[in-house]
Write a structure and sequence with these properties.
By secondary structure, the chain is of the alpha/beta class. It has 15 helices and 14 strands. It has an 8-stranded mixed β-sheet with strand order 3-4-2-1-5-6-7-8, with helices on both faces. Strands 11-10-9-12-13-14 form a 6-stranded parallel β-sheet, sandwiched between helices.
Length: 429
């Protein structure tokens, strides 16, 4: 059985959760003896290919294929040059001979990718990472006025984007839903996300809820020795709260900084806030200027550490007591929550979507999304020792749990692939 995993970026170029989920799956498949061949293919800027050909091997790795694709139309998610996309698909099929294409995103590729591979007899599995197929607002299901959106409709979508008529939104939805019928199986890493797609689609989508595989950099990390375990903030020193992620308007780092600035001076001096992340995409935006002003207002107890490598994240988290996930949209299954659990941290997150689904009652804390004052109250509770600051799960146990979860996720992926593989009456694996 031969599997091609397709992603919208290579995670070592654009380090997003969806990219790492796709790449971690590929690495797990490549190491599994039940898979004859696995390859990873992703869009990259032309400069990362290094020559004039359409394809390249990322940093010389023959099973990690990179390609510079034509742009897509943001509204319809169609490729601006479908003929080139067809040529790319044909070349990939000739080179990799896939039985299964596991599509992790149509962004950068184009929605036609589904039809192109299906017409060539390749079985399709698709992981859903957010709501871009449903929602034109970056797939976040937030109204442009700022409120959370609970269901899409052509009229409601046109109110957010008056440039497009309800009729155009109707056609956009109809075309996407028709193409999704060509997908053989869907995977949603959270029940919340699956339920949203089931409610949106007029057809019964074959969706399985399967957690993302967490990368080997995390699972293979060694837990700290018992004597050198988690820092004991109760025995002296500040409580350390860490943020890990991209600086975008949807990730809520601005809400976190607002909340921190609201804290009374004694509380602020008891909490050290560590911000790990970067802001490349929004570097020249009003949002960047707003963040800079909020950093200044938050004061010296906020420490900025900049971008981090994916293989560093577990050790960085182990220097924290809490990891805060203040996203203002629904999220799906944030990898940062899996990583925080693995590091033995407690989680403070917005009480919506996949974030709420992935946290543990009695161990983690939640707050009203986008509400800086509610987040500030939670930070005050943490600073005062309420709830009890004892960590209930040691990193060693967390590593075992995540490793078992990874094995279960891989097994469920392979079961889907094998079922589709056998449907084609090919040689039994």
């Amino acid at each position: 059985m031969r599997v091609l995993v397709l992603a919208h970026h290579h995670p070592e170029v654009v380090s997003g959760g969806g990219e790492w989920a796709a790449y971690s799956l590929f690495r797990a498949l490549r190491e599994d003896p039940r898979v004859d061949y696995a390859a990873f293919v992703a869009h990259v800027p032309e400069t990362h290919i290094g020559h004039s050909a359409k394809f390249g091997c990322f940093r010389g790795r023959p099973d990690e294929i990179v390609v510079n694709l034509p742009r897509i139309r943001g509204f319809t998610l169609e490729s601006t040059n479908p003929d080139v996309l067809e040529e790319v698909a044909d070349d990939l099929i000739r080179y990799t001979k896939p039985d299964i294409l596991h599509l992790h995103h149509v962004f950068n590729w184009g929605i036609e990718t589904i039809d192109i591979f299906a017409r060539r007899g390749v079985r399709l599995v698709m992981t859903l990472h957010e709501f871009m197929l449903i929602c034109h607002n970056y797939g976040q299901m937030r109204r442009t006025s700022g409120e959370l959106c609970y269901a899409a409709s052509p009229v409601d979508c046109a109110l957010c984007f008056p440039k497009y008529t309800p009729g155009k939104f109707f056609i956009r939805t109809a075309v996407i839903q028709a193409l999704l019928k060509r997908v053989d199986a869907f995977i949603a890493p959270s029940r919340f996300l699956a339920d949203r797609f089931v409610a949106w689609s007029p057809d019964e989508l074959p969706i399985s809820v399967v957690e993302n595989i967490l990368g080997r950099h995390a699972v293979d990390s060694d837990p700290p020795a018992e004597s050198a375990g988690r820092r004991d903030s109760a025995a002296g020193g500040n409580t350390v709260v860490g943020f890990f992620g991209q600086f975008t308007p949807f990730k809520g780092v601005d809400v976190l900084l607002e909340a921190y600035a609201m804290l009374p001076d004694p509380v602020r001096s008891a909490i050290e806030l560590r911000i790990h992340g970067e802001n490349r995409s929004w570097r020249d935006s009003d949002f960047r200027e707003r963040l800079e002003a909020l950093f200044q207002a938050a004061g010296p107890s906020v420490r900025r550490y900049g971008a981090y490598r994916n293989d560093e994240v577990i050790q960085l988290m182990r220097a924290c007591d809490w990891v805060v996930v203040p996203s203002i949209w629904w999220e799906n299954s944030p990898i940062v929550i899996q990583e925080a659990k693995l590091a033995g941290c407690r989680i403070l997150c917005a009480d919506i979507g996949g974030m709420a689904e992935k946290t543990e009652s009695g161990r983690d804390l939640r707050f009203s999304p986008g509400n800086a004052r509610a987040l500030a109250r939670r930070l005050e509770e943490i600073a005062s020792g309420r709830p009890d600051s004892e960590i209930s799960a040691c990193p060693g146990a967390a590593i075992e749990k995540i490793a078992a979860q990874n094995e279960d996720s891989l097994q469920r992926h392979l079961e889907l692939y094998t079922e589709l593989f056998r449907l084609d009456n090919r040689t039994e694996p």
